[in-house]
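Morning F.,

Quick status update on the modeling queue. The single chain you submitted on Monday has been processed. Sequence for confirmation:
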Amino acid sequence: MIEIGKIQTLQVMRRTPEGAYLNFKDGKDGSAILLPRNQEPREFNIGDEIEVFVYTDSEGDTVATVRKPKLTIGELGLLRVVETTKFGAFLDWGLPKDLLLPLKEQVAKISTGDLCLVGLYINNNNKICATMHIYNLLSSESPYKKNDRVSGTVYSMNGDFGLFVAVDNKYHGLVHKNELFGNYKEGDQIEVRVKK
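Structure tokens below.
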């Protein structure tokens, strides 16, 4: 099944004036998607396999692009805020249309130019959006041992506990409040030593 928000290798099934229609090689599900003409590689033939990113366009259609976004579903990363509005912020994720970070998915006030640690999700309209609520996207199975030096991004602060840090933007980390020296905010990059 073709998945929105992921990079997949699909086969060219047919060509039309709008572009090429792609599906998996076996094409069992019958749901070919459009690779718009302005996204087509210079030379390709029916039957060729093309690596594409699948998303939903502004009309609600599932389409493909040969451009690679900075993030896909299941990944975390730092994206820059290019605009803020009353309903959210828009982030540069490497595609022509910026990525929406809805207001309800923000954990702190953000401004144009800020870097935000985000993950992706698919909203009720089948569109890819960003979220700063990343706790469930982090793993507790880290490869680190005591006294390793690591870096991460502060993604949440709690006065009772301390700073919650996404170590290498993949793993859970906590800096206890009695270990904090200085002022921090969400989005700060910090280096720490693994205590346990």
